Amino acid sequence: MNKDFKYLKIPAGIEPVVGKPDPSTRIYRREGSDEDSGPWFDALCEHYPGEGFVSPGGVGMYAPVSRSGVYKRLKEGKMTAFCFHVVEAKRSIFGYQDKLKKRPYVYIPVSECKAWAEELKTRPDRKEAYLEAAGGEKPDHEGEFLDEPKKVAAAGKMNRKALKEIVREVFQEVLDEDLPTFSRAKARREAAAKARAKVDGGNKNAK
Is residue 2 part of a domain? Predict the structure, then answer.
């Protein structure tokens, strides 16, 4: 991961909304029903006012890259993506309940798309830059790696207002704290645990 790249900052307190990243990547995942997807996206936008989000295909509106190039960058942990997996419970012919997952909604920060475009412009090796934009020597045209996460946290049955309130409350605590103190790992973990407890409480009340 390029430490100089302008990545979107992901504070620990927003983990109940976006989930945890896949190992060695910046791909964050949650799952839930179709009804949960709207409140999830609203909560994401609530936390990042002024930030836009596009699908992998939409990255090309801001950077001269292909969808395969986006997939390659995501796999390498060089771009942030927020995924929401819509899960449907279906009963099989044998009477068992199966979870059927559709391809997730995938959103990438526009700020990172623009930063990538600037990075490509400054590459001294133009051939290397072109190859990266095209997706490498063996481009992935399908992006199936986005479909099957090893483990995805459920968003739970929470309405739009509840998700927004969690984001507001947790980050108000950040503002109230002494920022240098909050930056310590222990304080970040405490904030994340507090937000997670609120999510779990909301899920229990919805059952």
Answer: no
